[in-house]
Amino acid sequence: MKKGKQPHPLQKHVDPNPRVIIASVVGVLLVALVILLLPKLYSLFTSKQNQVIVGKTYHVSPFPTAGPTVTPIPPKTFTSTNLGISFQYPSDIGSKIFEEGNKIHIDATREHPDDGFSIEVFQKTASEPLTDAIKRQFIQGYPTDTCEAKMVDSSFDPGTRKAPQHPTYQYAIISLTQAAQDKYTTLDERGKVCPYLYTFLGNGTEYFLADTAHPTKYLFLNIGQSGLPLVGLDYDWQGTISFLDTPQQ
User: Fold this and answer.
1) Helices and strands (H and E) in the chain: how many
2) What CA–CA distance (Å, rounded) separates 9 from 204?
3) Which of 8, 17, 91, 140 has its CA 20 to 30 A from that of 197?
């Protein structure tokens, strides 16, 4: 009898198992299903992730737009031909600036004129030194050993330190003498031994200003404790004061 080719001695004949076949088929189907659903699952995941980022952190606009540009309003100029001075002031104070007698009120109302800043204009002779004019008009009647008029530097006013300097301008204050400061320690006491409204007591900025190019007048500036800066400048309104020629000069 002719024999066919015999199997290799190491090979064994295995009968197919139905359970193995079913498990293989199910595995193949699951792999195919995962491959088909993978793109959709990835898209869904990234979409949810983006929603969390936008909702809890920030949203980046693809076309950022700038907000409305606010143009600063430049200061206005107040000129008094009667008093012979001019200066700039913030535009936003509107009509809260007015002249009354020898005094100009800034950022105040007529009902409450002392709530703002002010400039007073006083007259003197052309040859009279500034401190002598102050003594004559303000310190007469006060004890000479408690009250004095003295010159100060242009840097006395913090609001004008960065302003253009005028070589003809002079600055002076009324203050207590050192002996009076040692004797009177409270503002109430100090305000009684010198003219209170015109004396520098350290609780505000007040001083006299003169211009040797216009020697027949001088100013008293009541600045107080707050400033009034001008848009676009590094100094306050009083740094723009100019003396003007008047018919008397």
Assistant:
1) 4, 10
2) 116
3) 91
Instruction: Give residue for tokens 């190019």.
Output: 213
Among the listed residues 233, 232, 146, 131, the one whose alpha carbon sits nearest the alpha carbon of residue 190: 146
Asked if residue 44 lies in contact with residue 56, where contact means CB atoms within 8 angstroms, the answer is no
Task: Give pLDDT, residue 99.
Answer: 96
pLDDT tens-digit series, residues 68-121: 766 778 999 999 999 999 999 999 998 899 999 999 999 998 999 888 999 999
The type of residue at 174 is I
pLDDT 10s digits, 191-208: 889 999 999 998 889 999
Handedness of CA 119, 122, 127, 130 (dihedral sign): negative
Q: Left, alpha or beta for 163 (phi > 0: left; psi -120 to 50: alpha)? A: beta
DSSP annotation string for 205-221: EEEEEEETTEEEEEEEE
Q: Which of these, 85, 36, 55, lies nearest to 216 by C-alpha position?
A: 85
pLDDT digits (tens, 9 = 90+) for 29-63: 776 666 776 666 666 655 555 444 444 444 455 55
Q: Please report, for residues 1, 135, 171, 192, 197, the alpha-carbon distance to residue 114 in angstroms, rounded to integers and kept in the order given.
A: 139, 24, 23, 20, 11
DSSP output for 91-157:
GGGTT-EEEETTEEEES--SSSGGGSEEEEEEE--TTS-HHHHHIIIIITTS-TTTEEEEEE-GGGS
